[in-house]
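BUG: 3D viewer hangs when loading the predicted structure for this chain

Environment: internal workstation, default settings.
Expected: structure renders.
Actual: progress bar stalls at 90%.

Input used:
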Amino acid sequence: MTETPTPSPDGSDHTLPRLVRDTLPLALDVAVEVAKLNGVCIRPLELRRLDTHTGTVESFNIPCGTTQEAKCPPCAQRNK
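Structure tokens produced before the viewer hung:
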């Protein structure tokens, strides 16, 4: 018996028609909306810290800190 493949919800396979794949949300749009709902910055700045003794580099993100609602609503609300 052969099983019929089930279409993946992200539309990466081509078993779904193009019209259906085009109506699925993009992953970036979903990530931005989740960040807005949780009050997290959607445009963080990445900084790197170098430990001069060991030579290791540590990366971390800080909020963008904008005051304009159109650019990053969570940071604008925080900075009012």
